[in-house]
Write a structure and sequence with these properties.
The protein is α/β, with parallel strands linked by helices. It contains ten helices and twelve strands. The protein binds adenosine-5'-triphosphate. The site of adenosine-5'-triphosphate has 11 residues, from helix 1. One of its GO terms (molecular function) is ATP binding.
């Protein structure tokens, strides 16, 4: 049976450099959900993702992971929830397989070597992200997209309940983007939950149950994609005129930047 959990942010905020990078962010992630964080560059998506992941301590409000009704922290939190960062770290000397196995550390005692369960979980996660055949390769020798998929596999190997993914599709080709989002939905169907930072609003509309649209550190809108991806809101937040056509599975969004487009067209005709 799937684990009952809730990741709750209540008016969570974070300050740095004398200002609020995120203020009053409220959301609840539970089993079966995929929540998208969207918004322009610098809006506070990564900061909120790091607050949810427990990597930043809120300067206002709270962030709390409840499993079977009880608050979990420290080592247990690391067994239940994992985070995939936006930038791809250096990992000199490690193979892809060793890196994914690191996701299993929180599940073992100190100095305890990995066991068959750990290897099984790592192999399964690597199969999900299509990197099983890269297990023996040095991480540093992989392409950007391959590395991204290894890091996602590590999070899948680690977390029982929830994964926070910061722009996980940024380095992926179209096929791997779709496979990843479909995998999140599949795992959500089995009782996990995900928070995903995305720039691609059409992808967010298609795969997420709910969206938080961030603007200059504040939640400009939150709710089902149809309620959030409204032309007037998008124009307010991105400063672009938008046309949103809803279809059976998601939407098509056409943005317009009249000044620059006109200039581009003039340049093209020269
Ligand atoms: N440690 C810090 N000190 C001061 N300002 C910071 C710090 N970290 C981030 N910021 C600023 O906070 C704002 C939010 O950053 P954040 O990375 O959360 O944005 P984002 O929505 O994820 O952006 P992007 O889409 O570009 O990844 C930005 O203006 C950023 O420059």
């Amino acid at each position: 049976m799937a684990t009952r959990f809730e990741l709750v942010a209540e008016q969570a905020g974070y300050r740095a450099g004398g200002r609020w990078l995120v203020r009053d962010a409220t959301l609840t992630l539970g089993p079966g959900q995929v929540i998208g964080l969207v918004g322009p560059n610098g809006a506070g998506k990564s900061t909120l993702a790091r607050l949810l992941a427990g990597l930043l301590r809120p300067a206002g409000g709270s962030v709390c992971l409840l499993v079977e009704g009880r608050r979990v922290d420290g080592g247990q939190r690391a067994r239940e929830l994992a985070y995939v960062q936006q930038s791809i770290p250096e990992a000199p000397g490690f193979t892809a397989g060793a890196l994914v196995l690191m996701g299993r550390y929180p599940h073992r005692g100190p100095f305890e070597p990995e066991g068959p369960e750990d290897r099984k979980a790592a192999a399964r996660a690597m199969a999900w992200t299509g990197v099983l055949d890269l297990a023996g390769r040095r991480f540093d020798s992989l392409s950007g997209g391959e590395r991204q998929r290894v890091l996602i596999a590590r999070a899948f190997a680690q977390a029982r309940c929830a994964v926070i993914l910061d722009e996980p599709t940024a380095s992926l080709d179209v096929r791997h983007q779709l496979e990843l989002m479909a995998r999140l939905r599949l795992l959500a169907g089995e009782g996990m939950g995900f928070v995903v930072v995305l720039h691609d609003l059409e992808m967010a509309a298609r795969w997420c149950d709910r969206l938080l649209l961030l603007d200059r550190g504040e939640v400009a809108a939150a709710g089902p994609p149809r309620e959030v991806l409204r032309p007037e809101l998008l124009e307010q937040v991105y400063g672009l005129a938008a046309r949103v056509d809803w279809q059976e599975a998601g939407c098509r969004i056409a943005f317009e930047l009249p000044g620059l487009e006109a200039a581009g067209a003039r340049g093209g005709r020269r």
